[in-house]
Amino acid sequence: MKKTCFYLVLAAMLCACSGGNSASRETKDDTPEDSSTMVSIHYATEFSVRDSADVRLVCIGGNDRFALVKSKDVQVPDAYTKVKVPIARTICMTALQLSNFTALDAHDIVKGITGTKNLFNKDINQRAKDGRIVKIGMEGEFDTELILAANPDVIFISPSKRGGYDAIQETGITLVPHLGYKELDPLGQAEWLKLVGLFIGKEQEANDVFAGIERRYNNLKAKVNALCHAQNADGTSSDDQRPTVFSGEMHYGTWHAVGGKNYLAQIFNDAGARYVIDDEETSGENLEFEKMYELAANADYWRILNSFPGEFSYDALRVSEPRNTLFKAFKDRKVIYCNMKQTPYYELSPVMPDMLLKDLVAVFHPELVESNYVPTFYKLLTTP
Asked: Which of 168, 232, 360, 370 is deepest in the core (most CB within 10 A)?
């Protein structure tokens, strides 16, 4: 399921490396004229890049440092792990990482994944079926022999997972953390495809793809802002007219509610809605039903992302927790829904925040999208 070709435009500039903070957005003036395509980071905070004459220095998360070189003879600074680029073979551990390779039309470089369960991409599934991609097992249960057989130049890992990387480290293969999941800005998460572009020699393609994402996202965001900040007839601001929204469901007796500074809260805000939790938390917390009801009883919309077997419905929502019927959004039939068993959410959404935004705007402010718009991920749940 390739949706890669519709992201194109523009190139950018190179940035200074400072452990993945705001300094990574500064342009490096002494970039050599004969260097590779320049790459600047504007939204991502967890990696940064700096060029010198013979080496490109990449800092990830402030602790992991890689020196990308085109010749193994190049000397690199202490504390940097040397990686000859472009790499030809790698292993991806998560769908978020894989989405970057899909967006860059670079499946040939992926030689291993953890598995194909719930994987939609037809090309990746075929490669796994015919042996061009090996399935190395899930976190904590990796098959070291299969990893060695894949012969990766580097392995992209996700420190948020259960791990099991010690055995891989003993093989001597370079492990590269992919921290896109930590980004709080939707465009920041998508910008990690530039990191992958650096490793695989597709810097220009990554710049072009991201420029298209950025343009579409910010153009729609600007329209939403203009609508939400318009003046009412009496001269007052219409800000208070933004619909309110909450998210999640009860699972095992608690309701995980993401914080007010979370990625999800950010995209709600950009889509012209107010998230019911207004705090400084990024990850959130597990709440009792009563607390969640106190926060969201009168919210206009309710966002749900799950893997329901079969057709999800309001009746299924009632059966899972009878008290769900108490929410205004349930009564008004304003549940915004995405079923991950029917939609490649995690395979595509990391590099399609513009489409996530448009889906939500189509619900909150339908006048801002075309009348025949077909959602990519989220739509209003209509099944009784």
From this structure: 360
pLDDT band at 11 (very low <50, low <70, confident <90, very high): very low
Q: Is residue 221 part of a domain?
A: no
Q: Are 71 and 172 within one domain? A: yes
Total domains, the chain = 2
Kind of pairing between the strands at 250-251 and 254-257? antiparallel
Alpha-carbon distance 179 to 188, whole Å? 11
CATH number of domain containing 274: 3.40.50.1980
Whether residue 153 is found in the same domain as residue 80: yes
pLDDT of residue 139: 76
Whether residues 36 and 115 share a domain: the answer is yes
Per-chain mean pLDDT for the chain: 88
H or E element in which residue 327 lies: none
DSSP 113-139: ES--TT---HHHHHHHHHTSSEE--ST
Mean pLDDT (whole number) for 255-276? 96
- pLDDT over threshold 60, residue 254: yes
Q: Is residue 67 in a domain?
A: yes
Residues 91 and 101: beta-carbon distance below 8 Å: no
Task: Tell me, yes or no, whether 299 lies in a domain.
Answer: yes
| Last residue of one domain, picked from the residues 211, 234, 256 | 211
- The phi, psi pair for 257, rounded to 5°, reads -110, 120
Q: Is 220 exposed, middle or buried (0-12, 13-18, 19+ CB in 10 A)?
A: buried
Number of alpha helices (DSSP H) and beta strands (DSSP E) in the chain: 13, 17
| Residues 276 and 189 occupy one common structural domain | no
Catalogue the E-assigned strands of the chain. 47-51, 56-60, 64-69, 81-84, 90-92, 110-113, 134-135, 154-157, 174-177, 244-247, 250-251, 254-257, 274-275, 285-287, 301-306, 335-339, 379-380
pTM for this predicted structure: 0.88
